[in-house]
Specification:
This is short-chain-enoyl-CoA hydratase. One of its GO terms (biological process) is fatty acid beta-oxidation. Its EC number is 4.2.1.150. It holds the Pfam family ECH_1. Pathway: Lipid metabolism; butanoate metabolism. The chain has 11 helices and 9 strands. By secondary structure, it is of the alpha/beta class. A 6-stranded mixed β-sheet has the order 1-2-3-4-6-9, sandwiched between helices. The chain has a 3-stranded mixed β-sheet with strand order 5-7-8. It has 2 domains: 6-199, Alpha-Beta Complex (2-enoyl-CoA Hydratase, Chain A, domain 1), CATH 3.90.226; 203-249, Orthogonal Bundle (Lyase 2-enoyl-coa Hydratase, Chain  A, domain 2). It is globular and about 60 Å long. It has helices at residues 30-44, 67-70, 75-93, 110-117, 144-152, 154-163, 169-175, 187-199, 203-216, 221-235, 239-249; strands at residues 6-11, 14-19, 51-55, 99-103, 106-108, 120-124, 128-130, 167-168, 180-182. Helix 1 packs parallel to helix 3, helix 4 (110-117) crosses helix 5 (144-152) and helix 9 packs antiparallel against helix 10. 48% of the residues lie in helices and 15% in strands.
Length: 259
């Protein structure tokens, strides 16, 4: 697929996706969603890529859905478009590899919802995050009412979604929406450092741990613990688990091979 709304490059085992619609602050169009689904499929099958960074440059991570487009859709088309949003963001959330959102400038509406689908969120100082949809007579329906609640709790989710007021990076850190706040000029360096750290872990372990963590927000604890038990037992069949345990005993660095 020819990419029209984003850029993709690989660097030392890290896949870097950059939104590339600067004139509209990286507003998310149907083309963007198709390209995101395509890239997640490609990355899933690319053994060279161990971790992914999604970013949008210094001005905006993504300003949300393309309002000029959304203003023209009817209810049937709206449901189709939102299903595509869910498919695209689910493809990020369910990728077997870690995904980091490197956020600068602003992340509003669908842009913030995409960040929620990532595993770890890093924000630059001065970043604004929010869900202004209520001011347009709608609400964040690309996962916002579900993922935000699970991440920051019902109180902050209601505050952000029902007021439409943005929050700054420091507030986002305090409520757990992001886990790191860095200087703007350090954002990509810090994201790459974290990506390299994650990429050095045993990939099978990372995949299975992510599955367990994702399950934890949608299953009861008994079911989650049962899945966790079976998952860790499976890991003991891998070469990487044996390598990691033996490396610890032998006081050396583990050499994980993804087997």
């Amino acid at each position: 697929m020819e990419l029209k709304t984003m850029l993709y490059e690989k660097e030392s085992g890290i896949g870097i996706i950059t939104f590339n619609r600067p004139k509209v602050l990286n507003a998310i169009s149907p083309d963007t969603l198709d390209e995101l689904i395509y890239l997640m499929s490609e990355i899933e099958s690319d053994d060279e890529v161990k971790c992914v960074i999604i970013t949008g440059g210094s001005r905006a991570f993504a300003a949300g859905a393309d309002i000029a487009y959304m203003a023209k859709v009817d209810p049937v088309e709206c449901e189709r478009v939102m299903a595509k949003f869910h498919q695209a963001f689910d493809s990020v959330a369910n990728l077997s590899k870690p995904v980091i959102a490197a956020i600068a400038g602003l992340a509003f509406g669908g842009g913030c919802e995409l960040a929620l689908a990532c595993d770890i969120r890093i924000a630059a100082e001065g970043t604004k995050l929010g869900f202004p949809e209520v001011n347009l007579g709608i609400f964040p329906a690309a996962g916002g009412t579900q993922r935000l609640t699970r991440l920051v709790g019902i109180g902050w989710a209601k505050d952000m979604i029902m007021t439409g007021d943005p929050i700054d990076a420091e507030t986002a850190f305090k409520i757990g929406l992001v886990t790191r706040v860095v200087k703007p000029e350090d954002l990509m360096d810090e994201a790459k450092k974290l990506a390299m750290k994650l990429a050095a872990k045993a990939p099978i372990t990372t995949r299975v741990a992510k599955q367990c963590l994702n399950n934890s927000i949608s299953t009861d604890i008994a079911s989650g613990l049962a899945f966790e038990q079976k998952a860790v037992a499976f890991l003991f069949s891998t070469e990487d688990a044996k390598e990691g345990l033996n490396a610890f005993i032998e006081k050396r660095k583990a050499n994980f091979k993804g087997r």
